[in-house]
Amino acid sequence: MTPGESTQAALILKVATHLFAALGYDGTSTRQIAEAAGLNIATVNYHVGGKRELYLAVMEAAHQAEKAALERALERLPGDDPVAALHRLTDDYLDFCVDHPEVPALWMHRWLSDAGDITQLERQYVKPLMETVTAALRPAVESGLISPDADVEYTVWTVIWAVHGFAKGGVLDAEGRRRAAGDRAALRRFRAHLHRVVHRTLGLPGDPR
């Protein structure tokens, strides 16, 4: 692939990511992607194949970004203060989704049965990451830091549901205006709430920070 072709392929992937995140797979056409990229459909097909192949490439890129962020977060998990380390892990995930809102948007479309004929992505991407996180938290359960009554897997899912919802839709203020991750006060308030949820759901010792 020549440098020019590589640039075009990267542009197509970027535009497709934006449109799939905004409109979903079912609501996006190859023509829309081509027009938004300033290219013709033949050029898009040349670089990525059809719409399905492009969607798979977008989801693969999103997964790799999320996986890399998670690996970095888990590398920082051990520490002198294990409770603070668990809260830091929550922060790292929230910060990733705030910085990359297209990732939760892509997955939330799938929650609504978008791209229903492409069924392997959850097994291929989501399940291994969930298993990695729950395995990383197992020592905290075995040591008694996390309450034996806590459902660790559902706590992780609760964080995912909450963070994706906030990153995608935000909250409404007193005047009915939507406040999302770009609003520093809303983000700070959500972060504090998320810490309280995780702290109390896992039965961690001390007061939530």
UniProtKB/TrEMBL annotation:
Q: Which UniProt keywords apply?
A: DNA-binding
Q: Which Pfam families match?
A: TetR_N
Q: Which residues bind DNA?
A: 29-48
Which InterPro entries does the UniProt entry name for this protein? DNA-bd_HTH_TetR-type_CS (IPR023772), Homeodomain-like_sf (IPR009057), HTH-type_TetR-like_transc_reg (IPR050109), HTH_TetR (IPR001647), Tet_transcr_reg_TetR-rel_C_sf (IPR036271)
Say which domain of life the source belongs to: Bacteria
Chain ranges of the HTH tetR-type domain: 6-66
Q: Does the keyword Lipid biosynthesis apply?
A: no
Listed name of the protein = TetR/AcrR family transcriptional regulator
